[in-house]
Automatic annotation (TrEMBL):
UniProt domain HTH gntR-type: residue ranges: 16-83
Protein origin, superkingdom: Bacteria
Alphabetical list of PANTHER family matching this protein: GLUCONATE OPERON TRANSCRIPTIONAL REPRESSOR (PTHR43537:SF24), TRANSCRIPTIONAL REGULATOR, GNTR FAMILY (PTHR43537)
Stated name of the protein: GntR family transcriptional regulator
A family per Pfam: GntR
Keywords: DNA-binding, Transcription, Transcription regulation
């Protein structure tokens, strides 16, 4: 009677690790802008770049597709996900809800040291760098990540980490503009003030207002970005 051979857990773990590393490198290239929406991802090129076989690359594609970073078209292959206006709006609707929970949970627990760090980040963000607008995007995510960490809600922190990765990609193509920074920092200051007063309900309300205005601004920029991209494709 033939017996099934036991699965080699070590081999499986190595393959999973290689796939995760491949996914991380591709993800970083998308977030940084080296790979742009609509770019085709060719297995052979990625295997050569990552120095891996096709199996980890294909698994990396599955990981990234589940996260929304890439899409698969049977007639075209795997490509970097495009910046759909509806997708941007849906992302920020989800983020708004999670951020409201985050600030509500964080307000009773946040330390003075963390509040001081939020003020420091917000002050640095107010000095908009026109040469490197991505810096403001990074600072904004640092601000909201610190609030999430203060919540002591690990499940929430993990959910937001995934949302922040997707947000980083979106903001790479439609970054902050100077005219929006001052208002963003004012909204951040209101959130900090309410947290400092230990008023969870008020902090949640200020966060809701912040994301209502952020979503409105971002959707307008996404529409303009897609119109510009469409015009470029026609030329």
């Amino acid at each position: 009677m033939n017996q099934l051979m036991p699965e080699n857990d070590t081999t499986k773990t190595v393959q999973e690790s290689t796939s995760e590393v491949a996914a991380q490198k591709i993800r970083e290239s998308i977030i940084s802008g080296r790979l742009r929406p609509g770019d085709k991802l060719r297995e052979a090129d990625l295997c050569k770049w990552l120095k891996v076989s096709r199996t980890p690359v294909r698994e990396a594609f599955r990981i990234l597709q589940s996260e929304g970073f890439v899409t698969h078209n049977p007639n075209y292959g795997v490509m970097v996900a495009t910046l759909g206006v509806d997708d941007v709006e849906h992302l920020y609707e989800i983020r708004s809800v999670l951020e409201q929970i985050s600030v509500f949970d964080s307000t009773p627990h946040i330390t003075q040291e963390q509040l001081d760090e939020l003020k420091k980040i917000n002050k640095t963000m107010s000095n908009f760098d026109e040469i490197n607008p991505q810096k403001s995007c990074d600072l904004d995510l640092q601000f909201h990540t610190l609030i999430a960490q203060a919540s002591q809600n690990q499940i929430l922190i993990e959910c937001l980490a995934g949302v922040y990765r997707k947000t980083s990609m979106v903001l790479q193509f439609i970054p902050f503009k100077k005219e929006r920074i001052a208002q963003t920092c004012k909204e951040h200051a209101d959130i900090i003030s309410s947290m400092e007063s230990r008023d969870s309900e008020l902090a949640k309300k200020y966060m809701e207002i912040h994301f209502y205005k952020s979503t409105e601004s971002l959707v307008k920029k996404a529409i303009a970005y897609n119109q510009l991209t469409h015009q470029s494709d026609q030329q």
